[in-house]
Amino acid sequence: MTGLLPVSPLNQSAHRNIYPAGTRKKKEYVMHILGGPLNGEYYEECVALVEKFGLKDKIFFKGSVAWELIVANYSSARITLIPTIALEGTSLSALESMACKTPVVATNVGGLNDLPCENASPDPKLLCSKMLAVDKDWPKFSKEQYNNVKKVFNLDNWAKAWLSVINEAGRRY
């Protein structure tokens, strides 16, 4: 069973701190990390940590995923984790996950605070605690986040917001 599906790019995330904190709590779960290049210094550091903590059978780096496969990936996950530590706007990954009825746990960085996911500071133990809470009451979090995204973060509302910005900019210039 896929337990965690972190999707933030590897170069902006707290993956290195989450491995030991999050993957040992639920023995039956694995972590699939989507996005980010599967090369470079940070990637190599992450791979070394996975090996150091003996988690090669629990953590899998998937790299970029074709858009056609996104829904299947989110839908197969128990929880999506957005472990951003800096510079995050509104996370399309978080919205996509919640739209697939997969609850999101995210750091309280930037625009992630504006989304209906479960937020915690970028501390591995706090994120792990949030993940365990979501896992324990999964149906509730899945339903609440899905309904909120469907109601607030839908295309009609986004179109109205963008038209408002465009109209306001047109009046100014």
Could you explain how this protein is built, in words?
This protein has 173 residues and is of the alpha/beta class. The chain has a single domain, classed as Rossmann fold. Helices cover 47% and strands 15% of the residues. It has a 6-stranded parallel sheet, with helices on both faces. The N and C termini lie far apart (54 Å). Residues 8-12 have low confidence and may be disordered.
Biggest sheet character:
6 strands, parallel
Estimated helix fraction: 40-55%
CATH superfamily: Glycogen Phosphorylase B
Number of domains: 1
Overall number of strands: 6
> What is the CATH architecture descriptor?
3-Layer(aba) Sandwich
Cα-based radius of gyration, to the nearest Å = 17 Å
Structural category is alpha/beta
Termini gap: 54 Å
The overall pLDDT, averaged over residues, is 84
As laid out across the biggest beta sheet, the strand order is: 3-2-1-4-5-6
Q: Which regions are unreliable across 5 or more consecutive residues at pLDDT < 50? A: 8-12
CATH top level label: Alpha Beta
How are the SSEs ordered, and which strands pair?
Layout: E1 2-4, H1 15-22, E2 30-34, H2 41-52, E3 59-63, H3 70-76, E4 77-82, H4 92-99, E5 104-107, E6 118-120, H5 124-136, H6 138-152, H7 155-172
Parallel strand pairs: 1-2, 1-4, 2-3, 4-5, 5-6
Helix pairs in contact: 1-2, 1-5
